[in-house]
Amino acid sequence: xxxxxxNVGLPREVPWHKTTVTTGIFKQxxxxxxxxxxxxxxxxxxxxxxxxxxxxxxxxxxxxEHYAYWEKELPGHDxxxxxxxxxxxxxxxxEDSVYLGDRFAVGSAEVVATQPRLPCxxxxxxxxxxxxxxxxxxxxxxxxxxxxTREGEVGAGDEIQLFSRVPNAVPISExxxxxxxxxxxxxxxxxxxxxxxxxxxxxxxxxxxxxxAAFPESWKSYLRDRLPKxxx
Length: 232
Hints:
Layout: E1 2-8, E2 12-16, E3 19-23, E4 28-30, E5 34-36, E6 59-63, H1 67-73, E7 88-91, E8 103-106, E9 109-116, H2 121-127, H3 131-139, E10 144-150, E11 152-154, E12 160-164, H4 172-181, H5 200-209, H6 217-224
Parallel strand pairs: 6-7
Antiparallel strand pairs: 1-4, 1-7, 2-3, 5-11, 6-10, 8-9, 8-12, 9-10
């Protein structure tokens, strides 16, 4: 497993639907090594801290393996590393092989996998397409977030080493699948939640996810509220 590219960017204003949007989704690869801190990489910021950034979203990872898919899906688009807003473009770390709570060493830092990425409208801003958010979520190629458990320096070419996995771990891809299953129109830019509850098998997955310390409480609450009610 390997860190292919490190990408950072500061918020900028861009035109969108006759208005101006401030976004930090425009990331550029850097050749130098950077300090990875608790909340972000040096030289990187998020525009809206209510939904982006923070301890559980310090680093956004996107697998380089997905680029071939998008090259076919988006002919004519320039797709440099960082185009999906990722800080780390990675090799060998796919959503179905990275588990909640997985701990990795990269460079002199240590990180832990916390949650999948759910795209917001600013991905559409980046690609100048309202359809991009829907297509991104429907593709199941959404990447994942890391929290920083030990600050350090990272750079392109660093090996990424898994050194710890929690018992009965849940793949990142399963959390995305469960989220989509609860929505009436999977893949819409802002899919509306329904009153659905989980099947017994999915409820078992949720219960496993709830045991992972690195899984954010916001996600736990969201999933817990949709577990089947047990009659007393």
